Amino acid sequence: MEESEPIRRELRHAVRALSARGLAASARFCAELLASLRSETRAAVSASAVATATSSMSSCVCGDEQSLSELEQDVYLVAKAYLDCREYEQCVHAISDEDDRTHDLLFFMRYYALYLLGEKRRADEMQPQFNEFVSSPLRDDTYRNRMVPEILASMQARRSARDLDPFANYLLGVVLKRERRWAESRKALLRSLSGFPLNWSAWLELSVVSAEMATSGRAGAAHNVRASLDAILDPISVAAKSWQSTSRRRCWELMRELGEARTYAQNALHEDALAKYEALSDALPSSAYVATCLAVVYYEMRDFDQAESRFRDVFHAEPYRLEAADMYSNVLFVKEDGAELSMLAQRCLRLDKYRPETCCVIGNYYALRQQHESAIACFERALKLNPMYSHAWTLIGHEYVELKNTAAAIEAYRRAVDLNPTDFRAWYSLGQAYELLSMPLFALFYFKKGATLCPRDPRMWCAVGHVYEELDRSQDAIRCYTRAMDCSEEGGDAVHRLARLYHAQNRMELAAHYYALEFGRLEEDGDEGPEMAEALLFLAEYECNLAEDADLAESFHMQCDHSRSASIPCDISQSVCRLVDSLTTLQGIFEKA
């Protein structure tokens, strides 16, 4: 039997256990992971292997339907049928208090259905607000899941009498997260994962809780996320070494890698996430999930060519896949690839026109065609299908900016950060909106929030530095632009800003250094616009004042001569031409020397 068979055996059990409890998303994740691990030869498993798998699963059963009495099985079957039909009240009613006290499976299903009922009512309460959202700000605590107090009380009562099983601990972690009790939520989720590491939903919740706890710390968010993950997962990894089941131990190691990669990606630690997903791609070459995550990370790193290539490979291999289609449409929108975006929109419509991802793809298509009202309607439809889809609020904000409706854009961005406080794009967009309103102090607050959440993105620091410039805080601006250069090899706008600031402070040597960097970058890009002319003019003046290097003077002489025909402003061109004569005179002096 091949080496992956023990993990596949655990995954088969996990799919059954998760499906039995209505955790469809986690069951699907494990099933896809199982499919990516299947043998290339698809050889039949021997009879002895089947016997081993059966006995292994029986020993690992954690309160599934096989251990129910006949009466309890009847209750379970009807409750599960109601849960599958999304008739949550019926599911709760079908399981009496006496039933949920006797068996972990029935206890979990009753209160999981109660939680889903509260979420459904919460979503229904949010729906009427879409048409008048500008006048009625949405906060995450405006519409609450009113079932949470009852669930918490029952969980605490049961925990005082007996230990909660991994699935009950997962549900406890979820409801504690709803109450923003981050530390307690994290402990419950860790208890769940140590007992059942293949519950992917628990890993997703843990990544959100870890991000919330990290961003509330004093140190940088990135450092806090790494330290937090290591601190909470290392003890379980140490304990896992003593587990008797080798397959369970290997499942924990695999899920930890997947969970850490997800957390890094969610917290804008793109380099760390990329390294994790590259390693996972080698271990799981057939995994569509890992391939999709790699494409998303490249998009977040603004490597749009690589992201497009990866997405194209994923959707070619999985023609009926809709997950991350919205991210793919973002890539195509940025690249202004209208033809490919149109094809993607048509494909999504054929598959399922009532999926939030489909609405987002169509909205991006309309946005690319400058049909902003139609785009907003599509994004709002996505929110009606999934009120927690925060990215749609950010896209609505972008469309209102295009329509010059800054007030509506700000409210849309606020809703995005209310739903997802770790979304640095929404914070950054809020700062840009307040810049449009000439409110630099507000803009500074939101830009700094974005920089805290995504400290490796040079755009965040350039935005903060620009506001500091407006506030005449030059030294703070210099620190921000220097930080931006540390985040990017090219430097981008930060180099030009630093050169100007040092020039204004009469720190000519530093100004010359950054203008030289700017000139080299623009020359490599073939950009002969005003910024190159400005850099060239300063460097020419600087060398004239030094009058020390004949070769350098000759070099700028040639560049200035070329700039006579360049597309640059008239006043700068005239200044450069005057310097040509000075440099020519200097060249004659150097030749006589």
TrEMBL record:
PROSITE patterns: TPR. This is Anaphase-promoting complex subunit 8. Residues 7-213 form the Cdc23 domain. The lineage of its organism: Eukaryota, Rhodophyta, Bangiophyceae, Porphyridiales, Porphyridiaceae. Keywords: Cell cycle, Cell division, Mitosis, Repeat, TPR repeat, Ubl conjugation pathway. GO terms for cellular component: anaphase-promoting complex. The keyword Ribonucleoprotein does not apply. It holds the Pfam family TPR_8. TPR repeats lie at residues 288-321, 356-389, 390-423, 458-491.
